Each structure stands twice: as C-alpha cells, then as structure tokens.
C-alpha cells in the first residue's frame, strides 16, 4: 500500500489578506507559518518518508524544505511544475470581495459548483486541466514508490480538486468536503497508483488551534 501525505503550504501574506494567489502570485510565508511547519514535522517524525515532491512556487517549495530540515533525515526532494497552484487568470492578486463584485457567478461556481465554472470568463485554468496535470503527477510518484510513504507539498485549490477527483468524486461534488487549511495534511492510499482511497481529510490537529480562521482555508 502506497500512502500519499498531501500537504498544503504554510500560510502567506496574501492568504491573510484574502487575496487570490494562484500559479502567478507568490507572497511570502508568515513568520507564524515556520512554527506551524515545525509542528507538522513533529506529527510526521515517526513516519518513514521515501520522497518529498513539491510545487516550484516559493511558498510550497520553502514549506517542503523546512519540513525536511525539521525531520533531520536524508529525504530526497523533487520540485515538479505540475504541482503548481490553479492558474486563476484575472483573479490573481485580487481580494476575494473584489472578485465577488466583478464576477459573482464565476466565483460562486469556482467555490461551490466546479461543474458549472466558466474558466474562459476570467482566463483561468479549468478544473479538468488542473486535475489532469496534478493527478498525473501524483499517480506517477506512486508508481515510482510502490508500498512506500511519500509527501506532496502543493496548494489549496489544486489539491482540493485533485484529491477529490482521485477518489472518484463527481465534478459537481468536488467541493462537498469543504476547503483545505494551510499546513494541513490529507492522506490517500493506493495499491496500484490508479485507484485511491481517502484515509484522512484536512488534518490540522497538530497545530493545536483553538478556533478556525476563515483566511486559513480554501
């Protein structure tokens, strides 16, 4: 059984400001995020990890490298461009409220009805495109590491869509489980690198947060 630990990167300045941060936005991690990455590492200290794969965007790349540093053991790191965030087109860098005012239907469908989302309206990627590139990468990583544990550090929107698609969720229901939090862990298992089972969704228990900050989740 191959186990995939899917990590959303640490919280950034744009996350805190409620700005859309896709494939072309890349604000710095918050100071507090480095502490949370250390807590993430502690939660994984007993897990034998064969390989870490990360998006090339700095917020994910730094999260992955700091995680390995805290684990303090020789774990190979591969940067793969297929793990980058959803290209959000015209929404990149905009505040959520401004996007809601300018493209209310597109935003509503992006958040709640992926099957109705019109990517052309905001010149973004489609859900199908994101799922294809990220899903293909994850399946490939599993074929390379049969029966082992691997870590994938990527982004909220891309991971949310792809994880749900890999476990067979229909496009209309991709968002039913809710969002993924910064520095969260979701676990998939597979026997054949094609069919996946959800073991754990959006775990942040190791961060010991007493309340949910809505800017943590996408």
UniProtKB/TrEMBL annotation:
SUPFAM superfamilies: Phosphoglycerate mutase-like (SSF53254). InterPro entries: His_Pase_superF_clade-1, His_PPase_superfam, PGM_Phosphatase. It holds the Pfam family His_Phos_1. The active site is at residues 9, 85. GO terms for cellular component: cytoplasm. One of its GO terms (molecular function) is phosphatase activity. Substrate binds at residues 8-15, 59. This is Histidine phosphatase family protein. It comes from Limosilactobacillus pontis.
